[in-house]
Amino acid sequence: MKFTNKKLIIFDLDGTLIDSSDDLATAINYMLSSLGRANFSLDTIHHWVGNGAQTLVKRALSGKSEIDPTLDEVLFEKALKIFLEFYSTNLAVKTITYPHVHTTLDRLKNNGLTLAIVTNKPFDFIEPILSALALENYFELILGGDSLSKKKPDPEPLLYVCNKLNISTKQTVMVGDSKNDIISAKSANIDSIALTYGYNYGECISIYKPNAIFDNFSDILSLCIEE
Fold it and tell me: Measured between alpha carbons, how far is 37 from 31 in angstroms, rounded to an integer?
């Protein structure tokens, strides 16, 4: 299989372009320690990442992926504030790009493709991270989880990007690591590529039936560049 006539590739950020799990875990455990609560392992927190800061904090306070419906709102607001303040000054301490991200983005851009980011991460955190990792010059448009009224898995952010860049959904590909990316793409009638190495809550990404599944970021070139 090979995609044809594609002009736009929309990327997720965490778990797709960058591995931010260490810095997110550090911020979560700092928050928990500040509240006098026990810390969790990196592996545990890794499975909570992917739905934005608010959901991550709620999962940490619940101690599991399923958010406690009785979670105290005042406690949550206090915890969220602690997390965001700490994370905002520790965005790229251990965060790194996944292998072949820069070289792959170079080839895609040099072949005339337009690149964008749609992530559930708060918008204010995105550009500092991209700058720290020398990724700031690749993307024509960037949306965070708080940029619009809805976020992935809703299709609205993907449709907004297509409309803003005046590129049809049929000419677009979504690349991500989690079910939110694939569900959002399917709802927007956009082809999708799933990556196996990111954050998908311990589930196999194939369950959500993306158009293609790859273990390595550079493999997307085989579908997206017409030789």
Answer: 9
Domains and CATH numbers, the chain: 8-19+95-224 (3.40.50.1000), 21-88 (1.10.150.240)
Residues 6+ apart with CB under 8 A from 69: none
Reported as a single tens digit per residue, the pLDDT across 153-181 is: 999 999 999 999 999 999 999 999 999 99
Angle (CA) 114 119 122, round 5°: 125
* Tokens 């965001």 -> residue: 84
User: pLDDT for 183-222, tens place per residue?
Assistant: 999 999 999 999 999 888 778 899 999 999 999 999 999 9
| 12 catalytic residue (yes or no) | yes
Give ∠ CA 143-219-6 in degrees, rounded to 5: 55
Distance separating alpha carbons of residues 34 and 129, to the nearest angstrom: 25
Catalytic residue among 12, 14, 177, 191: 12
